[in-house]
Amino acid sequence: MYENEIEYTVSITIDGTSVSSYVESVGINMSEDQYCNEVTISFNKDGWDLFHTLCNPETNWGTERIIVTINAVAFTFLLERRRSSVHSQGETFEVWGRSKAALLDLPYSDPISDTETSLNYWQYPVISRQASEIVNNLLSGTGVSVTFSINDFTVTSSNFSVDSNSPIEIIDKLAKVPGGRVRSGSDGNLILDYKTFSLSFTNPSLEFSDIDEIIQVDEEIDEPSGYNRVRVIGFQDTIDTGDRSITIEMVDDCASSGQEFQVKIYTSPHNLAYTFDTTIGTFFHIGEYDEIHTETIFFSEGQGSTSKPIYSVTSVAWVGDDLGDVTWEQGFDSMITDTEAYGVLEITYVARYTLYGVLIMSAGGAILFAEENE
Q1: 309-327 mean pLDDT
Q2: Are residues 123 and 65 in the same domain?
Q3: What is the average pLDDT value for the chain, to the nearest integer?
Q4: Hey, which of 93, 195, 238, 265 has its CA 20 to 30 A from 307?
Q5: Would you give the DSSP letter of residue 112?
Q6: Rounded distance, CA 319 to CA 321, Å?
């Protein structure tokens, strides 16, 4: 055996009968972009007799019949399809099936629609349900359970409806509201969670030290449908007149209607007078606060900038070439050196901001804005 080779112990049963000795190959597909796991099992010519007996899809239709155990981890599947092939050495065949979450879709489950006469769990006269309650209601009696690992939220009957959607399509529709996904575990039960991303890196693959080399930078923000969520848009650098600017920053990405959320406002200079308002809802002043930032700043021709206006500087240290002393002004984000060169600076500084609370009672879109007082 090779040094880094991994050993697998695989056993396969159909309706409790071992078929491992007749299997030519087995493949399991588990994708983050589909709600069901899939299995494909190819049988050798010695297993042909199983084609008409044990591997008949019509037998125990809609039940978990296939168990593939890999190193003591059992994967369960329905047996939904078989296909034969004729070769010079004889006849072979393969079977295919999905995990039991397939029972929530056609042809096992009928599509659901909201009509004036239907009494679906989320419809009026019910005012609202939690998303987790709707999911559990759709799974009731199916034999499929769920691990609900996304943010729960309120679904009101006035802004949620379905039209010829299968139960799994409705669940997927709900999971996407807070940016979640639907997938299956090895046991075939549903998992509602978020994709995980690793933002850690060691060295950049490519680094530009001169902003003039960048011809175009594209950015696209993709957001899920609002439902009963409140979408808040805070424009960066709403005011930028000369050296004066106002920046609005969300503390929370979104909030349900009736739930308080907070925003930070940074101004340059710190004593800039402004008026803050929102198109819907109410807001209130919480206080003034300081926060500590540690950042790596790239200097181009002796100039660099921090992400927030500087209130005070705790420490600075050049990485690599030392460009000398750094000059900055309180209340602004720009820094300069006496040397018009390129370099990298690590800085720890204090930023000061004003914190506001915002309360929006109705679902919809809200625009927060701030304008400088005349």
Answers
A1: 88
A2: no
A3: 81
A4: 195
A5: B
A6: 6
